[in-house]
Amino acid sequence: MHTIDVNTGRPYRVHVGTFLLERVGETCREVAGGERACIVTDTNVGPLYANPVRQGLAEAGYEVDIFTFEAGEANKRAGTYISILEFLAERAYTRSDVVVALGGGVTGDMAGFAAATYMRGCAYVQVPTSLLAMVDSSVGGKCAIDLSSGKNLAGAFWQPAAVLADIGCLATLDDAQFADGCGEVVKHAAIADPDLFCALERTPLTPELLRENVPLVEELVARNIDIKRAVVEMDERETQARKLLNFGHSIGHAVEASENYRLGHGTCVAIGMTAISRAAAALGACDTTVPERIETACAAHGLTTRTERTLDEIFDAALHDKKRHGDTIDVVIPRRIGACSIETVSLATFRDLIAEGIGAKGK
Ligand code: GLY
């Protein structure tokens, strides 16, 4: 098992290993206390994993409730979030009780935001079951819901009390869900760890690798979390350095929105990283091997790097992005594999970057 200590304002420990679902109860007891525990999960994950978690919580002395919502990004919205708050209030949860986020990124975001705001904040423990949630969204305390105008537009920075990433849960992901998580894995390596990037080029993180070598998958997940830890510790509330984690996201989020969330987040990040790297190489900010290596690494992880969306569709969607400030937007530009810079560019320049990145005609 790997443990990673995240030294944010409220420090916590991330555990990466196998058979961790059974340990959620004892971990909640250690880090959060309280009398009641509410598992927040969705209709895909609940039937698979809620039982061992519920049992462990009960054995640790908790009165346990389960809130289950319909799976899917379309449900990461105010209605579901308010239902969680009402559910906690109807059962007389206090701010010393604990919320357990059991699922992927959507669940972690909604349970985290509910915990951040219920009685002005109660403890929550992240139990990510998707690769994307393990390597990215469960760590760092960002939690949000979508509004009609865009993704993650209402949210908070609210660090979990602990994170338990049980690698065994990855076995029930389908190939597309697994690949989707790899978008963030390639991103972490591309922004901060050239050795990890080379390792992923040699041995991609795939479902086959999970079947053949669980310890290596465990190590790769832990290494990704450690990259995220280092960035979040530098800049918990994203005033500057944390923006590096948005590599591929300015275009990626816009593709995601213009696709009406039919494509996974990690897949859109792969499209966004490749596009911005191509544009950066065309401008001379990095050499052409950077987009080539990123595109090849994404493909080796089963990720598409091309979009059918038009320049106007992507640009219009980008105007709703949180990373936009008036007439400018922050963009992460690759300099070489393992090093990126954060640039503030005008919206007109950003439009040109998108056009260059997706190879749009008649820019
Ligand atoms: N997923 C980017 C961040 O947590 O900052």
Key terms for this structure?
single chain; 363 residues; alpha/beta; Rossmann fold; Dehydroquinate synthase-like, alpha domain; seven-stranded mixed beta sheet; 21% strand; globular; binds glycine
Concise overview:
The chain has 363 residues and is of the alpha/beta class.
Walkthrough of the structure:
47% of the residues lie in helices and 21% in strands. By secondary structure, it is an alpha/beta fold. The protein has 2 domains: 2-172, Rossmann fold (3-Layer(aba) Sandwich), CATH 3.40.50; 175-204 and 228-358, Up-down Bundle (Dehydroquinate synthase-like, alpha domain). A 7-stranded mixed β-sheet has the order 1-2-9-6-5-3-4, sandwiched between helices. A 3-stranded antiparallel β-sheet has the order 10-11-12. It is globular and about 60 Å long. 51% of the residues are buried. The model has no long low-confidence stretch (mean pLDDT 96). Glycine binds at residues 136, 140, 142, 242, 245.
